[in-house]
Amino acid sequence: MTVDHIGYLSSDINKSIQAFEQIGYVQESEILIDNIPDDNNTIRNVYICFVRNDSTRVELVSPIDEKSDVFFTIRRQGEGPYHICYQVDNLEEQIQQLKKMGWMVLKRPAKAMAFDYSRVVFLFKRGVGMIELVEG
Ligand code: NI
């Protein structure tokens, strides 16, 4: 599986963009607002912005308010990396394979606006933590 991006928790997306730029990253997207219910009827309520350098793409994720998906995650673990996202050709196939290895699906696959509505899924396994898969 190829790494698509590293997901990063940020308390203040503008501050994070600036700080990443200072260490050589360039902003790759506008600041996206993800506040529309997804296929699971979850509203993430987050700001998202992609920055990249020569080798790595980082997805900055920042809470819009206290109802945000990541509000308590940031409180608990602070700012920093919180998932690695891998590109896969076939989401269902990959999920089945990972399940056989003991991975647990945290949220059912859903189209993500930050990825032009490609489907993504989050999985968890002890020893690794959370990963994300993006299809295509
Ligand atoms: Ni991600």
Please characterize this protein's 3D structure.
- This protein has 136 residues and is an alpha+beta fold.
- Helices cover 20% and strands 44% of the residues.
- The chain is globular, with a radius of gyration of 15 Å.
- The termini are close together.
- The model has no long low-confidence stretch (mean pLDDT 94).
- The site of nickel (II) ion has 6 residues, from strand 1 and strand 6.
Task: Write the H/E string, N to C.
Answer: EHEEEEHEHEEE
What is the 3D form?
globular
Our measurement of the CA-to-CA distance between the termini, rounded to an integer number of angstroms, reads 11 Å
Share of helix, binned: 10-25%
Tally of separate helices: 3
Concise overview:
The chain is α+β, with helices and mostly antiparallel strands. It is built from 3 helices and 9 strands, in the order E-H-E-E-E-E-H-E-H-E-E-E. Helices cover 20% and strands 44% of the residues.
Descriptive labels:
136 residues; alpha+beta; 9-stranded mixed sheet; 3 helices; 44% strand; globular; binds nickel (II) ion
SSE inventory with pairings:
Layout: E1 2-9, H1 13-22, E2 26-27, E3 32-34, E4 46-52, E5 57-63, H2 71-77, E6 80-88, H3 91-100, E7 104-112, E8 118-125, E9 129-135
Parallel strand pairs: 1-5, 6-9
Antiparallel strand pairs: 1-6, 2-4, 3-4, 4-5, 7-8, 8-9
The structure holds nickel (II) ion.
